[in-house]
Amino acid sequence: MFLLFAFQWWKRANPLSLAIPYTPTADKLVVIEDLRKILAEADRIVVKDSPETWAKTLFDSTDKEDLEDLWESLTLETPGAGEWFHCMCNGTPALYVFQQGCQLLELTNHHGQSIRCSLWDSDVRIVDEERWLSWFDLRGISGPRREYEAMQARGEQHKKDWQRWLDTMPKALAPVWVNALDELGNADPAPHRAALERDMPDRNERILALLEWFGSGAGPWSGFPSYEIVAEKLILDFSTTDIVAAIQSERLSPAQTEGAARLFGGWTFGKQRPKDLKELPNALKKDLWLHTQNTKDKDKISRARRAFTN
After folding, report:
1. Measured on CA atoms in the order 79, 27, 49, 73, is the torsion positive or negative?
2. pLDDT, tens only, 175-209
3. Which of 28-42, 111-125, 141-155 has the lowest mean pLDDT?
4. Which residues contact 4 (CB under 8 A, 6 or more apart)?
5. Beta strands 57-61 and 44-48: pairing type?
């Protein structure tokens, strides 16, 4: 099931790429001027930690300056034709604008990148994200900034993971990989298999190169990016006997050791070749168990314990 959780790295780095496109109704097109007029007339703003009815109030003000600053913080990009979208999350926090006790509109923040407004059908992208986040900062509302920075950090990490994956890829696969991924980030192993066999005729060399690649992923053995699956499929073209022989043919690099531990300790191998797992050499199991213990990763250790200590 973990395959369903792994989209391409670029989608994981940008939640707005997971937005739902749709056709707006004619009476709720985005007109930024409508928002400006309402904020100019409003006399109260309330910020809650979510749009749910039971949400906690984070900020409540009748100061016109707060409403004026809110408008100044919103640099919005009107969606063009075919660009109407809804982020898949409900948004947090939620802002409610009132005039004489009547609610005029609701706004929700979506990752510091876009807003949803009850005036319009489509979400709207924020051009100056820093100005928007600063409005919350100045009012002691720290959640939007924390979420945005965490998202940016994840995006940077995904880029690093992706680059490491490309750098470790067997060079024979580079021309094939350019157009390899489908919409879910999966790659067809067939052209990769042919390229490897053509450029790396030595069986042990191919296995070790694939173990190096498989051991250079984002890190998790479960819930990893879909593009990493192709390396496992290519390794499993070989018999367990051949894989073990290649491993024992020379001293493994740290990445190759990680690839071997990930392969034998992973769900796919245990499901497809449970008998082979029991027949792995004891010395190899010991080495892979010690390697995994040193990662301090609880999920890996749990999987390795089942694979290598029974």
Report:
1. positive
2. 999 888 887 778 889 999 999 999 999 999 999 99
3. 28-42
4. none
5. antiparallel
